Amino acid sequence: MAGNQREMERRERRVQKERKHKKILWIIIAVIVLILIIMKVCEININSVKERFTDEDGKFTLTHGVAEDNFPYSLDASQNVSVININNKLGIMTPSSFTVLNSNDADTEYVFEHGYSNPVLETAGIYSLIYDQGAKNYRLDTVSSAVYEQETENTILCADVSKNGTVAVATTSNEKICDITVYSKSLEKTLQISTSDGYIVAMALSDNGKKVAAAVITGENADLKTSVYLYDVSSGSADAKAIELPHGSVIDISYTSKNVIVVGDSYAGMIKSSGKYEEIYAEDSISARCISYTPAGDLILVYNSYSNSTDNVVSYIKSNGKIKNEIKVSGNIKSVTASSSLVSVLTNSEIISFNLSNSEEKGRILTDDSSKSICRMGSEIFVHKQSFIDRSEAETN
What we know:
The protein is mainly β. The chain has two helices and 32 strands. The termini are far apart. Residues 62-67 have low confidence and may be disordered.
């Protein structure tokens, strides 16, 4: 009997132990689910969290995540600085250098001195393209290494890069007005076109590098006219229909899926793959201030009704050309940046964040007039101030 009693007690203890283990396991699962929900709501990047707790050998560590970071990060210049999200890294171009930083701790992952007198930066996916506008040199890099650097025969007007590393360069021409040359990332020439239609002022490549859009300006009856030409790289054809744009200067053109979004100083529209131009904002209906794009390629356009107005509208325009939402903001807006669901604007005194879909204000960060531009990455906002980059954890309501 005593033996049976002890056996029953052992079984009871084993059952209680198993229940305790199951309870602990369910608590852990519940905590993980809660953390994932919070990260989703606050737009915290899971890869960034993993990087914070992974050492240089790829092993998990609790001490790595609390290491002291290098923000504020000092720059070699205070003017003409571009700060951009490039594949979840912080890309910084100054008049003399280009640097890729780890956004967690400002560790330098890649840096080079470009030596260009008038550098212009374009990025797509893991690729950055820097070209010397008005000169003859350009270079293609990834976030971690150089791909190539090349010198053109004639002066570079503008250029663009696609997500697969395809590069399109527009230059002046010996025989006509402009040349368009497209290269693969292995420097294979996939298209070369010479045109006398006018001077190319802006270019855009589709994500797969198979389509090129070129904005061309011409003079007609003492009046300037801008048209966009769409070229198919795979066919190699120089024949392209001219899609005339409204009057005004072109600020930016960009491929979004099969369509091309065009932003002018006083209008915005979309060129469909069929070649038809569709109006988003009519000519002379807006005064564009600044633009940005979401990770999905949706356009964020800041405009006001007239050039001296301080009552601004932040317009969220989907990749199909439809206006999803408009957010009214008072004050001089100097910069705009967006994640997949949040948009932040920089005024003279603060950074204000909104939900893109419903205009709900999500937070404010006080700043001062020394702040020149902002770049949002998940829950963090990087601010260019004078000759350094600082990091602010975006407040959310």
